[in-house]
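Researcher: Sequence recovery benchmark, item below. Answer with residues only.
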């Protein structure tokens, strides 16, 4: 380059002076970030107040602001891009059975535990505590889902451990304060050396997850009050938890046991992580296969009563599946509304196109219904065991676990299409939500299993049916389509329908409960759209087929994320 004048050497200047294309010129919307996920979700705010957690307003608004920040969204993306890695041995060949996580995972866990997603109804019990937690959890589900697995399991295990602390004083003395603590402590140490602890659940084996009575893992009394557990679990999520509640065959039958990761003497328990599952979604979270090589565990409840003991944990995890799917639905719908507001085609924004307005309004309806259902169900978990609400939860939990979770993949796919090609690209987040969407329907009792559970409850627990029908009585006369539907539903629940009809029953319960909530509490246009499109003979095979006479603008405006 000798002899070339200096200014000529800066030839790329010509390139640099080419004006960069601005986002507005490129017809690309601004990134969906910096929104307060609470303040911009009216259905959630209203449901939170209505269901008894008005006192949590400021705290939820703060959490909604944190979750909506660009930095939080980028932690979520990173935790899923850089998933967990299994390290079975150290460099000297010793078994360590550790899982390494990206710092983004730890950051998200610390934030959510500070917020109390793993414990707040137990650490700060008060009326509406379940509802406040549900609202916080729903917003978290809009952003990241893998971290919610250990948070849910810890939250769900607490009532079981509390109940059995009488038999094992160390549960109360050592574990309980750490399960309620709000500081995240990811260290692999005996629990006594930690500030907080997390709990997981191990039920599913190779030969079956729905039919846990077929479990083959054995638990033999060790003679010192503990049991020796031998066998395996085919799905064992969040294996870095400090303990798991597991099912195993004891001499008296299938039993629930508390299996810590470290033993009281400080040694690692004989829980061997075989491999991590290579999953469709939920990639930030580790789900493992494990073998128990004479692991030590302690019995919770009586031998042979494993299912009744662990079912209390399962009930709470199923609640979280409903809330989590409502969050996924909101996350996808908010993205779709945001995109359609800015993106233009054929001379106007997508949000102004009549057919797109039908799709957006229909998506917004799904968000309204899922949010209302999730928070109503959470309130039922606030109730004491003898109340009508507890009876309602018996029927509503499996019905909504079936239905809301089933809606999520449909809604996320439609929302993705609103973004066109951009929606199919990882950076838009929609692909991650799409991969996540079927999971809540599969784990913690898959769709059919939920519907059969609804049928069982309807047949065996008249108080549950009564509580459900009482919800409908509150809105009698509010919408004649809903009235007709609930009459048919009442007859359906009273009849001895066969198993093959169980999905129809559960779906009928869910759309009716949503209808009842919307008729009572939502603007008339929303309730009208719901009852006219989800109840009776309306054509609902895809979204975007609402009657064209509806005021789409009113439905969409209410759901806009800002
Ligand atoms: C990512 C991930 C993480 C998981 N983490 C855990 C975990 O941490 N701990 C844990 O214990 N499990 C975990 N699971 C397992 C999960 O709970 C089970 O996969 C689920 O319960 C279904 O059990 P299965 O896979 O054995 O299917 P199966 O029991 O074989 O069922 C297969 C299908 O048949 C249907 N079915 C079953 N019985 C009937 C019937 N009588 N009539 C009609 N249909 C029926 C089910 O609804 C399901 O759709 C995880 C699963 C996944 C995908």
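Model:
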């Amino acid at each position: 380059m000798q002899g070339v004048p200096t200014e000529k050497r800066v030839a790329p200047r010509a390139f640099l002076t080419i004006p960069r294309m601005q986002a507005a010129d490129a017809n690309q919307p601004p990134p969906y970030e910096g929104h307060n996920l609470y303040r911009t979700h009216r259905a959630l705010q209203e449901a939170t107040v209505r269901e008894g957690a008005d006192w949590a307003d400021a705290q939820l608004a703060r959490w909604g602001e944190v979750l909506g920040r660009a930095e939080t969204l980028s932690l979520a993306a990173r935790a899923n891009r850089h998933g967990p890695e299994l390290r079975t041995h150290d460099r000297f060949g010793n078994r360590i059975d550790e899982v390494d996580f990206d710092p983004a995972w730890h950051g998200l866990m610390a934030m959510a535990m500070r917020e109390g997603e793993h414990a707040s109804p137990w650490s700060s019990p008060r009326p509406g505590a379940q509802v406040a937690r549900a609202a916080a959890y729903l917003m978290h589900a809009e952003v990241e889902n893998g971290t919610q697995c250990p948070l849910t399991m810890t939250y769900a295990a607490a009532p079981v451990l509390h109940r059995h602390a009488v038999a094992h004083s160390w549960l109360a003395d050592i574990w309980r304060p750490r399960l309620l603590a709000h500081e995240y402590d990811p260290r692999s140490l005996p629990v006594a050396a930690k500030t907080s602890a997390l709990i997981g659940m191990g039920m599913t084996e190779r030969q079956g997850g729905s039919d846990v009575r077929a479990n083959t893992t054995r638990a033999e009394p060790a003679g010192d009050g503990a049991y020796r557990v031998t066998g395996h679990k085919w799905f064992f999520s969040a294996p870095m938890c400090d303990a798991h509640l597991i099912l195993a065959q004891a001499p008296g039958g299938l039993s629930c046991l508390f299996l810590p990761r470290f033993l009281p003497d400080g040694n690692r328990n004989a829980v061997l992580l075989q491999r991590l599952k290579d999953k469709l979604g939920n990639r930030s979270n580790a789900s493992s296969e494990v073998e128990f090589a004479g692991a030590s565990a302690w019995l919770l409840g009586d031998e042979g009563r494993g299912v009744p003991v662990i079912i209390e944990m399962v009930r709470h995890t199923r609640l979280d599946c409903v809330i989590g799917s409502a969050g996924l639905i909101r996350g996808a719908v908010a993205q779709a509304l945001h995109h359609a507001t800015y993106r233009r085609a054929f001379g106007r924004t997508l949000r102004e196109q009549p057919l797109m307005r039908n799709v957006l309004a229909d998506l917004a309806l799904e968000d309204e219904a899922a949010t209302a259902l999730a928070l109503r169900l959470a309130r039922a978990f606030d109730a004491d065991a003898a109340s009508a609400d507890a009876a309602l939860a018996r029927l509503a939990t499996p019905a909504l676990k079936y239905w809301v979770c089933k809606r999520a993949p449909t809604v996320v796919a439609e929302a993705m299409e609103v973004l066109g090609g951009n929606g199919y690209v990882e950076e838009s987040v929609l692909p991650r939500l799409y991969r996540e969407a079927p999971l809540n329907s599969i784990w913690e009792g898959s769709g059919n299993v939920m519907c059969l559970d609804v049928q069982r409850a309807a047949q065996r627990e008249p108080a549950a049916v009564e509580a459900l029908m009482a919800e409908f009585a509150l809105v009698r006369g509010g919408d004649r389509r809903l009235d007709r539907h609930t009459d048919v539903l009442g007859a359906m629940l009273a009849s001895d329908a066969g198993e093959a009809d169980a999905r129809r029953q559960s779906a009928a319960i869910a759309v009716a409960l949503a209808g009842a909530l919307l008729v009572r509490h939502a603007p008339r246009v929303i309730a009208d759209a719901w009852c006219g499109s989800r109840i009776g003979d309306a054509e609902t095979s895809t979204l975007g087929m609402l009657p064209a006479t509806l005021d789409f603008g009113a439905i969409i405006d209410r759901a806009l994320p800002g």
